[in-house]
Specification:
Elements (H helix, E strand, L loop, with lengths): L11 E6 L9 E6 H5 L3 E7 L5 H13 L1 H6 L4 E6 L3 H11 L6 E4 L4 H6 L2 E4 L5 E4 L2 E6 L2 E7 L10 H9 L1
Parallel strand pairs: 3-4, 4-5
Antiparallel strand pairs: 1-2, 1-5, 3-8, 6-7, 8-9
């Protein structure tokens, strides 16, 4: 499993763009994780699935609500990762009204989850291999804080916890 001090994996995620601009075309666009994190402080959190109850009712809304406070504490970007495709993540971004606050990044084949060792096997529940629920603070591509949830829990990966750790 990825640890504090480790570099983020060399993985390409996908991001759905609603509008053309900033070098991005409409639709899914590749995001090279290492290049996108270089020189930045990233508040990254991952969820088991878009549109799932805890993820939609608590996890994403918490980061939306704390976005300005996180940015005031030195966070350049907030990334939400899920093992879903870019179209689902784009629809979820619209539903959660995250524009300008969070980047919704699709880990469609669970490559990032596998590379970090943060997978969650939900095959028996009809969801397949997913990402565990966690948060991390990433500075210049290296993990400086890591909060991994126990299965079925939502206690340490919330926005308020990561915000307090960012200020520490």
């Amino acid at each position: 499993m990825i640890q504090v001090g480790d570099q983020l994996p060399a993985i390409t995620l996908m991001e759905y763009s609603e509008v053309e601009g900033n070098g991005c075309s409409l639709g899914p666009n590749p995001v090279d994780v290492q290049k996108a994190a270089a020189g930045k402080t990233i508040a990254l959190f991952a969820v088991p699935g878009a549109f799932t109850p805890t993820c939609s009712a608590k996890h994403v809304p918490g980061y939306v609500a704390q976005a300005e406070a996180l940015k005031a504490a030195g966070v350049d970007e907030i990334w939400c990762l899920s093992v879903n495709d870019a179209f689902v993540m784009g629809a979820w971004a619209r539903d959660q009204k995250v524009e300008g606050k969070l980047r919704m990044l699709a880990d469609g084949d669970a490559a990032f989850a596998k590379a970090t060792g943060l997978t969650l096997d939900l095959n028996g529940k009809g969801l397949g291999l997913r990402s565990n629920r966690y948060s991390m603070l990433v500075k210049d591509g290296r993990v400086s804080v890591l909060n991994v949830e126990a299965p079925g829990k939502f206690e340490v990966s919330d926005a308020a916890t990561l915000l307090a750790q960012t200020k520490a």
